[in-house]
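name: query_chain
kind: protein
chains: 1
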Amino acid sequence: MLTGTPRVLVVDPSDEDARRTVEVASSLTGAIVRVTDCLAEAIRSARNETTDCIVSELRLRDASGERVVRSIRHANAAVPLVIATRHGSEPLAARSIQLGAFDYVTKDGEDWPRLVPAIEGALGQALLRQVAHAAPVVPKELSSDEAAIADMRTGRSMAPVVALAQRAAESGVPVLLEGETGTGKEVLARSIHTRSARRRGVFLVQNCAALTDSLLDTELFGHLRGAFTGADRDRRGLFAEASDGTVLLDEIGEAPSGLQAKLLRVLQNAEVKAVGSDRSVPVTARIIAATNRRLEDEVAAGRFRSDLYYRLAVFPIRVPPLRERPEDILPLVHRFLRRFEADERRTTSGFAPETLDLLIRYPWPGNVRELEHEVHRLVLTASAGHRLHPQHLAPRIRAAVAPPPEEPLVDVLRRVEMAVIRERLHHLPTKAAAARSLGITREALYWKMRRLGVVSPRVVGE
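structure:
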């Protein structure tokens, strides 16, 4: 969590009403807001680290366009920058993101409601960087994992997850990570380990779905020589090998019932008994479990022990799928593009705006891992120096987000507007709160609901 109240600098020379709108939107995030109208002040603030996020117009008193983005990023690349402008275009938006802006919002009725979530996401990114800098120095061989946690991003959905992971790192209790395949559970588990007091110990992973019951017993608990046919020497299990480090039990929902009983004893008594042994030895390793199933449902269905579940879920963290955090897609896309262009020594001309649109609209059932692999494939297959157009995307992506044939633009916009309004009415307590989150007045919301035929999903207060 950011130390103290977050700080936002609004850089906007617009008329007083327009500037006040941006200032109010920034304050809705709970931040302390300062306002200036020139690039020079933004650069000073970035260099002196007196702000956690900068929200800037692209046409200032002393600069405009790409120069605004380049100058602020050059002054301090760690301060997230949100562009909020009425002087933009799709190419300029894509270029700003490529230059390192966290997000880009235009000051019109359709895009403007994204400003508050964009600032929240930027403050989340600042939180992640602060946590990373405050953490003890991690072993050199784990630096790639720390880079991977940055790939998970910290928009509205991920910022609380990263904050919970930091709190988990400060404790020694078991942690249960729940989330779909490809959301980055192992990356998060490594992050918890490298930020904890156990960071100098090893981090070992065992997939509970990958081995038979007997092999799992041997891998986790070890065995004595002669314990079974082929056991020609003693073997230490993962719990003993980990010592004062961390053991990640991946796909814990797939663990057989016999193993569940043994894991319960490990958690209850902090000791293990090797296969073929008649005595137990103490266990000092920390246990983190991960699953792509909802373990509460598995307990209700009788497939998972309730007593083991409650022992594992002392500190549960749900990692949201990528489709629930679309604000992370574009920053991830550009981060992956830069990485794979460097790794493969192949340079493209970036993404066409319509390609980025398809990437945002695709549901990503394979989550961050699928997105990462798709960008890697694009870098490998696209001609060097060429722009990445929709036809370069995998057929499954183009097919999944293809618009209905000959659907008029007005119908597309109507459908999107209806979906956004319904979503806000469903999740926010009042219509007034929904209107504020959309950046419009309550009267304007009522008018839009009547025009679009939107019915509130529940009784919402005034």
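note: The chain has a mean pLDDT of 81.
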